[in-house]
UniProtKB/TrEMBL annotation:
GO terms for biological process: phosphorelay signal transduction system; regulation of DNA-templated transcription. PROSITE patterns: RESPONSE_REGULATORY (PS50110), SIGMA54_INTERACT_1 (PS00675), SIGMA54_INTERACT_2 (PS00676), SIGMA54_INTERACT_3 (PS00688), SIGMA54_INTERACT_4 (PS50045). Keywords: ATP-binding, DNA-binding, Nucleotide-binding, Phosphoprotein, Transcription, Transcription regulation, Two-component regulatory system. This is Transcriptional regulatory protein GlrR. Residues 141-370 form the Sigma-54 factor interaction domain. CDD domains: AAA. Residues 5-119 form the Response regulatory domain. PANTHER family: TRANSCRIPTIONAL REGULATORY PROTEIN, TRANSCRIPTIONAL REGULATORY PROTEIN GLRR. It comes from Nitrosomonas stercoris. Pfam families: AAA_lid_14, HTH_8, Response_reg, Sigma54_activat. GO terms for molecular function: ATP binding; DNA binding. The modification 4-aspartylphosphate is found at D54.
Length: 454
């Protein structure tokens, strides 16, 4: 078994070395930091199993170091050593989350006992996240960032329970990837993982998609339809862009989560459900609550556990790792003999900002692989691909065209190609509806085969 790693922090180098010798003799591996600031620098690149810090130090003191650790690495235990401790101080410290609080001169046996307890009770990053072989759920997330490793430790812990999880972060950071990881690491991994983008489905259809509907429930409902809650039974339902869900449906979702039952549109019978909910948003839901766009009671139902996924700019050390991964994937996909980046290309990738995060990086690398005529991708090709990527913001007209087509396809599926019923469902007259179908080159007769499956 590998030695457990302990970070020792004290501005008295003699005491620091003495404590290190004692802990090394007890079988622990120690790293020494002569200040809290030096300790924080170390934590940026590595993770010990425990931190033992002196209280009184020049600059940042031990309590300030604990507050930093508690905020950024809440699963990392801290033991404080002080020459000026009192019982009230010890009580206050433990109430704030410090694992141990010992007054100098301390009893070495008591310290070793506290160290053993702290390491036994704290989650082990190496066993949970970095175990060998790597768990299947972990393989899809590529990183060497300590920030991401902390997040993955939390993912492993969250997956062990069944609480609702709210994922936040900028667009393109990989929220669905993390939702899948939580599902795959959980006891529900053999059951369905079902996703829905709450912003991509028209309000009129979203309730039916979530809860299902009965035949005849509304004009165009030509057959019973199982909603996503029923499809995800026993597994996980991922509600992406939950911040865009209409208020009326928020109330119905809240009822489903509270009562653990759903009622399909047009039904008088409630159906019990066993589904874990993971939701995600790039919006500030607290701000949405203030503006009365989001229900506060639903927020607290969804936000039992909250995980924030860092932007790519916050994990820039992962850019070369991800770029090389995408290079291999797309070289195989497009059957191109491309196997690396020129030095100036890597430098440009690292120097660039990534407002579109991992999704943008992936798109840029694929474009470069497709366009490259030589085995090494050049810096010029990277610059050209990023410039084109910035120019490819979808216009309002194109976005509306895509939305219209997706909406029409959905309505035709629901009505099995019955134009009269589809037009009523869309609240358009038949002539206008036919024009919409022609504009998008949709053949309604192709959807009539769905009727045969009823």
């Amino acid at each position: 078994m590998q030695s457990k790693k302990i970070l020792l922090v004290d501005d008295d180098t003699d005491l620091l070395k003495l404590l290190s010798i004692r802990l090394n003799a007890a079988g622990y591996e120690t790293t020494l930091a002569a200040s809290a600031e030096e300790a924080i620098n170390y934590l940026d690149i590595s993770r010990p199993h425990l931190v033992i810090s002196d209280m009184q130090m020049g600059g940042m003191d031990g309590m300030a170091l604990f507050e930093y650790i508690h905020h950024h690495i809440p699963t990392l235990p801290v033991i404080i050593l002080t020459a000026f401790g009192t019982i009230p101080d010890a009580v206050a410290a433990t109430q704030r989350g410090i694992f141990g609080y010992l007054t100098k001169p301390y009893d070495p046996k008591i310290l070793l006992n506290q160290i053993a307890q702290a390491i036994d009770l704290a989650p082990d990053v190496e066993n949970i996240v970095l175990s060998t072989p790597m768990p299947a759920w972990r393989k899809t997330i590529i990183t060497r960032s300590t920030l991401m490793e902390d997040l993955l430790t939390k993912v492993a812990l969250v997956a062990q329970g069944d609480a609702s999880v709210l994922l936040t972060g900028e667009s393109g950071v990989g929220k669905e990837l993390f939702a899948r990881a939580i599902h795959q690491a959980s006891k529900r991994c053999e059951q369905p993982f079902v996703t829905i983008n709450c912003a991509a489905i028209p309000e009129q259809l979203l309730e039916s998609e979530l809860f299902g509907h009965m035949k005849g429930a509304f004009t165009g409902a030509v057959r019973d339809h199982k909603g996503l809650f029923q499809q995800a039974e026993g597994g996980t339902l991922f509600l992406d862009e939950i911040g865009d869900m209409p208020l009326v449906l928020q109330a119905k979702l809240l009822h489903a989560l509270q009562e653990r039952v759903i009622r399909p549109v047009g039904s008088t019978q409630s159906i019990p459900i066993d589904v874990r909910i993971i939701s995600a948003t790039h919006k500030d839901l607290k701000a949405e609550i203030e503006e009365e766009n989001f229900r506060e009671d639903l927020y607290y139902r969804l936000f039992v556990v909250g995980l924030t996924i860092p932007s790519l700019d916050q994990r820039s050390e992962d850019i070369p790792l991800l770029a090389n991964h995408f290079l291999r994937v797309f070289a195989e996909k497009h059957q191109k003999d491309v196997n690396g980046f020129a030095p100036e290309a890597t430098g440009f990738l690292l120097a660039s900002s990534w407002p579109g995060n991992v999704r943008q990086l992936m798109n840029v690398i694929e474009r470069c692989v497709v366009m490259s005529a030589v085995p090494l991708i050049s810096g010029e090709l990277i610059r050209d691909a990023m410039q084109k990527d910035a120019e490819q913001l979808t216009s309002f007209e194109e976005a509306r065209r895509q939305f219209e087509r997706e909406y029409l396809v959905k309505v035709l599926k629901i009505t099995a190609g019955n134009v009269t019923q589809a037009a009523k469902l869309a609240k358009r007259n038949r002539t206008e509806f036919y024009k919409l179908l022609q504009r998008h080159q949709l053949d309604f007769t192709m959807y009539r085969s769905l009727q045969e499956k009823v």
